[in-house]
Specification:
The protein is α+β, with helices and mostly antiparallel strands. It has helices at residues 2-13, 48-55, 59-165, 171-185, 192-209, 267-277; strands at 24-25, 37-38, 213-222, 225-234, 238-243, 249-253, 258-261. The protein has a domain at 213-277. The strands form two sheets. It has a five-stranded antiparallel β-sheet with strand order 3-4-5-6-7, covered by helices on one side. The protein has a two-stranded antiparallel ribbon with strand order 1-2. Helix 3 crosses helix 4 (171-185).
Length: 296
Amino acid sequence: MFRSGFFFAQALSAPAQRTRTPPSLLPIHPCSEEPVIRMRPTPPHLPPVLFLCWLLLPWPLLHGADTRQQIEEPVHQAVLTRQATQQEEDQWRGDREKLTARFEQLQAENEELRRQRTELRQTSTATESRLDGKKQQLSDMIRISEEISPFLDDLLDRLRQAIAMGPPFLVDERQQRLDGLTAMMGDPAVTVAEQYRRLMEALLVEAEYGFTTEVHQETIMVNNEPLLAEIFRLGRLRLFYLSLDHRQCGFYNVATQAWQPLDNSHLRTIRSLVAISSRQQPVEILNVPVGRMVRQ
């Protein structure tokens, strides 16, 4: 109380002077590097009584709201800035991940396309090589066709002559085969390969006749008289006949294109040939009158 009274008395007795209050340090602004110094307002030159009332005013309460606002506003602004920055960073990170995934996908697709291009080049090279081979084969086929066609025609003529000049057995069957070959050789729709195959089959059939025997009954002309006899074919070499009463025998003379009787001394041999071919007796070695081989 004494100090207060003394201060009050001194203030009343002393002349009014402008006094300065020491500066007060405010909180540091988030965006500033130096502290903010706010000067307390200097009281004006007042009478003692008014000066005393001025001193008794609640300055902290008057300036508290302003100070709090000055502190919270920069902090709030900094929080908003940080949130916006974080959102931008998150968005940028998401965009980067999407772009990275897209880039990796494009790289993989590029590698796959390169692999496919390499395979296509290899396939194209192999195809061109095969195409060149096929072209060469086609050229060879054309050349062979041009060369083999005259040969096939000549071979058919020789087969026709061999059948006409040989013993007359299975006449209808062999003539039908010849007619089919003749029609085929004149058909342009049939390839040379098919003509060659059919002609070789006909030659093979004719060749197989030389390794077989057979017996059948047929009416033939002997000395201008019909005779029902058993005809024995000895391969492609010779035809023999034996009358049904087994009293006459003979052979087909290719030179005269007629049936010719044999001497009765060959009757037993011809009987054995017919019996063996008909499987009526065991096989045995016989002396068959086949004539002589003549070079033409």
